[in-house]
Amino acid sequence: MIAIVDYGVGNIANIERALKELGEAVIVTSDLELLGQAEALVLPGVGAYAPAMARLEETGLIEFLQEQATKKPFLGICLGMQLLFESSDEDGQTEGLGILPGTVEKLPSDVRLPHMGWHQLKNHGEAVYFVHSYGAVCDPDWIVDSVEYGRLVPAIVQKDLVTGMQFHPEKSGEVGLKLLKEWRETTCNSTQQSI
Q1: What is the pTM of this model?
Q2: Hey, which end of the chain has fewer CB within 10 Å, N or C?
């Protein structure tokens, strides 16, 4: 069973629908016991970094998610991916979950923001749907795929059991479903592979 973390920030219904379309058993919850029983966790997110971190703190999820990320497959989507890092410079400096070393920084001012629409992944060679103005800055060894948008923007990162997708797989049609399926089949079944 996959649990989608419900903390009041995210495109939960579409993610739930996409995972169910792949035949997954899915629950949406903020209950720590149920989240702890799940085989894998998905952290969605839409909006701004600081309010999202505040919601995680209000719901008592921060330490729990930090611990769970060392025990089971953990997928952050869009803002959920950004929250995995140590901090963001959005609206000042905001501390993140610190599950992945690295920061989240505003995309360059010489490109149109937000970065919205379809963009081709360099390694997978297929287009996925993005909506964001900030992107991760992290160790290149963890970047599974990326796009160029004013700078190199990590689109998929993976370290140990933790995976992040900056784009919205649930809004990326068949390609998004394929990438979610790859995450489920590889990351959830073996920590030695990457998507």
Answers
A1: 0.94
A2: N
